[in-house]
UniProtKB/TrEMBL annotation:
This is Coproporphyrinogen III oxidase. It comes from Syntrophus gentianae. InterPro entries: Aldolase_TIM, Coproporphyrinogen-III_oxidase, Elp3/MiaA/NifB-like_rSAM, rSAM, rSAM_sf. Pfam families: Radical_SAM. The keyword S-adenosyl-L-methionine applies. Keywords: Iron, Iron-sulfur, Metal-binding, S-adenosyl-L-methionine.
Amino acid sequence: MTTISLIIFFRSVSVFPLSEEGRLPPVQKEKSANRKINVISSLVGYMARRNFSRVMRFEEGQRPSLPAVSSGEPRLLYLHVPFCERLCPYCSFNRFVFEEGRCREYFSALRKEIRLYKEKGYNFGGVYVGGGTPTLLLDELEETLDLVRRCFSIREVSVETNPNHLVPERLERLSRIGINRLSVGIQSFNDDLLKAMDRYDKYGSGAEIVERLQQAQGRFDTLNADMIFNFPSQDMAMLDRDLDILLDLGVDQVTWYPLMVSDSTRQLVTRTLGAVGKGREKAFYERIRERLGREYRFSSAWCFSRKGTMIDEYIVDYDEYAGLGSGSIGYLDGVCYANTFDLAEYCRRLDRGELPLMAARTFTLEERMRYDFVMKLFSTKLNHSQLMAKYGGHLSPRLWLDLILFRLVGALRYSEPDWRLTKWGCYLWVVIMREFFTAVNNFRDFCRAEGRGADMPLSKIQEQTHE
């Protein structure tokens, strides 16, 4: 779709109906408004999907490398621990069933990679440990975080975990080793959904998860509840019940993602959870926003916090982040890169003193601008002056067009010095970020499927990822 046709389309769906809808009966008026919303969100999703799939095309024909350290801007260190006790059907992160010996060997390699970043002059202000389930071996996690603090100027530490690890002895140790934010993968408190996800037996019933969250409250600066909405079998009553529980608990933070299904996990998700559709996604999101918005502030379009703190989407608070660990993706100085997904190859490369990079792509200036535009607005606001200053007072014509189009459909408003998402704009950014993470997940899935990315030509990855 060309730029001109996009402008004509947005004008037709946002301006022309204003003169016509006033003559319609209320029911037809509501249907007309819903049709516009569905058409616009579908178009935005399509454009985001197309753009993000293009961005995920990594470069071939040259050896990937990290950019030299060029500034002292705050960066985040992401550490990936790819081991789980149970593999969820919808998850596309690089992960393996837990084996203690394999996991210990991996942590040793991860610490070697940390030292290589230190040797190259990188520094980080925060560390986010994700997975997988990083809390499977607490002695290894503690040793790794001790190393990170010795190497870098760490101010904040966030770690992911699962509900079955919220027991007194583990919680005491996690608190003692200085974790500021603990993010708990809950997804839902509904027992039927937990069983469909194959989480009920291993991670506990909804009632058991509530008890464990109560044990964890007050031990950390922030306790985050990770949730998912828009499961195929979920209805509004089930969502409201999850909301009731969270509001009664009063957790510090709630991150509530839409269900995101990559191309290669769709069949498994359909078989275990049902066919995924987007017809109720907006209604679910609006209920979450309405109820949590009364007691929480927005940290991102789908993260709700009681106070300023780290969030799962560290891309909002940090312009740059290093991705360490097998299958990690990083973004430093305009270079997006990925580590090998093959565990054995990852360990071999680090044993040789080499970074385990698999692929890299240098963003153009316009791509960097649009990346900042999307990620900063995901926080619900974008400081216009800061963005202009970052790029020497000039923004690309296409970025200005994006601003105009989103303003035209009522997704953005300007309140100096910020562009801010409207209520409608927040949902559009949920759509955009859903497509962003789906594109990343598609890349991960194909890397895993084809020999875990150890020696696979990038052209083969990209050909399959962007079909």
